[in-house]
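re the bet — no i am not wrong, look at it urself. input seq straight from the record:
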Amino acid sequence: MFQSCFSYKTVDYNNIDTEKKQTLRIQKDDRTKIKGKLVSKDDNKIIISKRGENQTVMQENIEEIRIKKFSIIRTAVGAAGTYAAALVIGAVVFLVLLAS
């Protein structure tokens, strides 16, 4: 459920905030995808860490970059859906108990 509280937003290479150690999803021009935490970025390359190992990706090989963002709307919808499901299950159990 908590995974649905996050979404990925596409960003331009030059607009990545290096002060925040964000989770990135990089799609390279050969269609491979890399996911990890931002370590550093300069004009030519970006370095991300996954499971303690650093991986360098050259800017010219990057097709798309997405940043993991917390989504309050997804969280609220997920919580409301869980609450509604609990109410329905509770009502069904109550009706079954009344009928017997």
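see?? The domain at 2-99 is CATH 2.30.30.100 (SH3 type barrels.). told u. also The chain has a mean pLDDT of 85. so pay up
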